[in-house]
Here is the input.
Amino acid sequence: MSALHVAIAGGGIGGLTLALALHQRDIDCTVYEAAREIKPLGVGINLLPHSVKELSELGLRDALAATAIETASLTYYNKHGQTIWSEPRGLAAGYPVPQYSIHRGELHMILLEAALARLGPQRVVLGHQLTGFENRGERVRMGFARLADGSNVSAEADVLVAADGIHSAARRQMWPNEGAPRYGQRVLWRSITEGQPFGDGRSMFMAGHPDVKFVAYPISRKLHEEGRSRINWIAELSVPGDTPPRQDWNKQVDASVFATPFDNWKWEWIDIPALIRGASAIYEFPLVDRDPLPHWRQGRVTLLGDAAHPMYPIGSNGASQAILDVRSLADALAGEASVGAALDAYEADRLPKTANIVLLNRQNGPEQVMQIAEVRAPQGFKHIHDVMPRDELEGIAARYKQVAGFAKPQVQLQKA
Here is the structure.
């Protein structure tokens, strides 16, 4: 394929990772980001081993290790604090790379700094929000709202990759009748609390069941080394209704809005009410996704990450799947004979895989074990295997890993 210039709409995790992957393959690209300044915002996320493998092959392993926690275990509990299922994670589970828990903003800064250093600052254009596109034969013309002065500007490229999130302008243009994201009848409250570690300081847990759930994991290596913990947590409750207005997403709220159902969740190894009380700021999000699309490509335009396949944050998979999109698309653009063949190959690879995860997450993915335990033993149990046989628990965990692409045989490092 002759020399290409790829435009990437969206300078988030997917967009910046794509820029680094294209640069590694000697493909020219420019990132257009809506924000006028990229700041280390957000809360914690997990990077599963298959995505850590890809980031490691982009030369980012040391930067991740310097700030993130190497997650060593994941445990599911019922609402009484009884263990349903526990398993090692990352290196502790025998993977060739870790599973990392990291502050989203710190990951974002790692990617941004690498992109600026490798591509040059002129290749990361801030304050430009994609408004639409037009396929013009072998070129794509893009429209942007320039936030500095409110003007409309345009640019051209050989390929446009829309990595502009769940409210993607490109997706909206491709599928104008799709409507609002699909609300899962649940709301999440997310925050960070600094304090004493639970477990070994590298443990992740989920407790409860889909209607009343709490998730927590540490995200700071520095504090871990000091004997403390920066704990990212999510409280989740069933809240029936319509999709909340977009302007209400990510709003800051008081703990009184949601904390009452967790008042008695105090166990030997964790005090969840104290964790909630110690939070710096709490942000509210609806649980949303979108139905899988028949296709992502329109001419020389395609979708990536949340623009392509927004999914429930179940199974710690959202950011990781965007990073897997990157590998597939970058390899296709570098290896196929034409742009059309490359975009088709990428879509054929990634669309069915991510569609399966979206649908499986609607059934609670690996968290099904919590749901099943609640249905079968709402008052608790003496031993989990009286409620769920071990092979049933193992089977649920193994099937999700296989579908999501991080079963151990699927995570192999490139040979030098």
Observations:
- Residues 49 and 99 are 5 Å apart (CA to CA).
- The radius of gyration is 21 Å.
- The longest strand covers residues 182-195.
